[in-house]
Specification:
alpha+beta; 14 strands; 10 helices; five-stranded antiparallel sheet
Length: 328
Amino acid sequence: MPCHELELPALVSNSPLGFLAALGILQLTTHDLDQPARLSWRGPDAPAILHTHQPLTHQTLAELLGSHLPDAPATEPLPLVPGILSLPRTGPSDALRMPIDTALHHLRTHTRAEREHNTPTAHWFTALVNQLSIAPTEKTPGKALPARGKQPDLYTSSTPLFGRGGQMTLANNWTKAAQECSEDPTHLLAALTAWRRVDGYAGANLDHHSTGDAHMVSHGKPTQQGVPGATWLALHGFATFRLTGDGTYAQTTSWDRTTPNGALTWPIWQPPLTTTSITALLEHPLVRTPNSDPAKLHNLGVTAIYAAPRTRLPQADGPLQLSLRIHP
């Protein structure tokens, strides 16, 4: 069966936002194409290549991706797997931090639906809600502290790929990205071909350039300048990463906790890979171990590895920094 290649010039391998957006494309198109799409890279600091069994143009791909935009982002920002990002808050500021018993109940429900109806809800739930890293939450307003000797309620954690601060939650960032793309569908085409920054759009702390320093804009005032289309795609890329832990300390595929604020680390590769193969590569010990044998990485098809540390604001997580190539 013939295979068609589509270069995505705006999604370059040394950009954390570009890398995540490329993964998001695979997640969104998995159930739309006759055969699962695959992804590769032209090389270090070079664009992503989408491999499909049917020919696609940038325009037709943008339209295919746009078919997954929610009709009512504020009500259900993730219609691909409804009922996760639209969960009500149960105490903490982020609904994805929930009592562990509640999380396990949801997981059993989603697992049964995935088994019986082949929906990816359980897969997505475990990529956004970590039941293997639990801790007491802050005191909920209006709720008394637990009695002496009684254990406090234990709450799940969520993915560290999203940087939180203030009233920011993953759900409201997803909603805002979807609203921007719904109001102007050309954002999705621009995400693939040439990014177009939007004044006042903050993004989701995945792109250092979205901070919009004063010298970067014509009016000379600092303003947020995010890329809605690429951000919306990148958020869907979170489903590629697994959340694990030992009950207290969380672990996430490709998230390096040895740096003060954490860092996203990722390889790029030459052979075209599906989402399942990409997750396996991201978790490979050679990719996750510093100073691995270059010859063995080459045998895996890895051509470069990058890291983008998380910045820190006074009372919040900051955006991912510009990437550093750590191999070769």
